[in-house]
Amino acid sequence: MTSPSPRSGLMDRPDSYGPVTRVLHWAMAALLAWQWLGMAVKLVLGRQPLAAFFVGTHASVGLMLLALILLRLVWAGLNAGRRPPHGDGWLGKLAKAGQGVLYLLLLVVPSLALLRALGGTRPLRAFGTEVFAGRETAVPWMTAPADAVHGFLAWTLLVLVTGHVLMALVHQWLLRDGTLRRMA
Ligand code: HEM
Questions:
Q1: Within 13 Å of residue 184, how many CA atoms lie on the same side as its CB?
Q2: Quick one: which H or E segment has residue 125?
Q3: Which domains are delineated in the chain?
Q4: Whether residue 6 has pLDDT greater than 50
Q5: Which residues line ligand 1 (CB under 6 A)?
Q6: Which residues contact 44 (CB under 8 A, 6 or more apart)?
Q7: In terms of pTM, does the model score above 0.90?
């Protein structure tokens, strides 16, 4: 008989996600909600103090999200084969593919914004500190991708996350198979 790993309480199991995965999941959900709420306020209300407040936190929260998704990818790798299965059949495959697209967008959306900031003329400030200074002249190949798609992909991510939440509710209220409890 093998003795349990000392980390096993933190790791995921086939019947439920462990505490590290849960903290990463819900922290990212809260920070994403903050980003979308802030940008929606900016779009709806225009330039005013509440929107300026949200815009002022956007890069800091976005960089935090980038750090969390990188941690999450490493953690997913360490938990490969231990996680609750998605199920067989096309629904299971669809759920897996959907999760893959979510992970991809969670990586691409803040990464492109960071690349734009690195190639731009304005300094990047996060958590009240200057992360790096702006360049004298912008580098178009670094700024163009985020100019073209950062907002579009961020709203696409919102649509996918909304679908993800709706599916979790379908599992909870219609299928009653305990899917939400594994993460909640
Ligand atoms: C997962 C993280 C992030 C999410 C979900 C997100 C989301 C968004 C959304 C929804 C918009 C509004 C687009 C529109 O006006 O329709 C936006 C704009 C913006 N974001 Fe982010 N963002 C993230 C990370 C970042 C980071 C890390 C930075 C900076 C380093 C950044 C900088 C900007 C800037 C400068 C804008 C205004 C220009 C534009 O629309 O591209 N964002 N973001």
A1: 9
A2: strand 124-126
A3: 19-183 (1.20.950)
A4: no
A5: 32, 35-36, 39, 43, 58-59, 62-63, 65-66, 109-110, 113-114, 117, 124, 146, 150-151, 154-155
A6: none
A7: yes
